Amino acid sequence: MNIDSIKNGIIIDHIEAKKGMEIYELLHLGDLNCPVAMITNTKSKKMGRKDIIKIDQDMEINVDMIGFIEPNATINVVKNGELVNKYKVELPEKIVNIAKCQNPRCITSVERDLEQIFTLTDKENKVYRCKYCEMSLK
User: Fold this and answer.
1) Predicted structure pTM score
2) Which is nearest to 10 in space by CA: 31, 30, 26, 34?
């Protein structure tokens, strides 16, 4: 398989196999007017299997969303065909409008314009709780 290199853009690497499509959808990458390559279930020495997303466009991305889905991912920034920055994503302390509270009694169920805010309460088990009702994400 041959995937072209990118001139200016972003490569999201070290995504756990089968999680790439979730990131693709949450970032709305299908709405872009540039080439986006998604490589799924490829071999990795470090992880066994992984997914990779290549975006051939310089753009802002929601790093917290990526960290929430895959805290071990890396983001590579490419300019003029050269890697200019590489950083590791981490589990965010707070996520905003990435997930919705499932508690039907939560104020976010009634107040539609209220932001969906969750705070990391247990890093080891990746537990987030709603800011308003304290219900955990599942």
Assistant:
1) 0.85
2) 34
Contact assessment for residue 18 and residue 41, using Cβ atoms and an 8 Å cutoff: yes
Please name the residues in contact with 53: beta carbons below 8 A apart, sequence gap of 6 or more: 11, 12, 15, 20, 23, 24, 29, 36, 37, 38, 39
User: Could you report the per-residue pLDDT of 104-134, keeping only the tens digit for each?
Assistant: 999 998 888 899 999 999 999 999 999 999 9
Decide: residue 55, CB within 10 A, 0-12 exposed, 13-18 middle, 19+ buried.
buried
3-state secondary structure 122-136: ECCCCEEEECCCCCE
User: Is residue 38 classed as helix, strand or coil in its secondary structure?
Assistant: strand
**CA torsion through residues 103, 130, 116, 127, sign:** negative
pLDDT digits (tens, 9 = 90+) for 8-31: 999 999 999 999 999 999 999 999
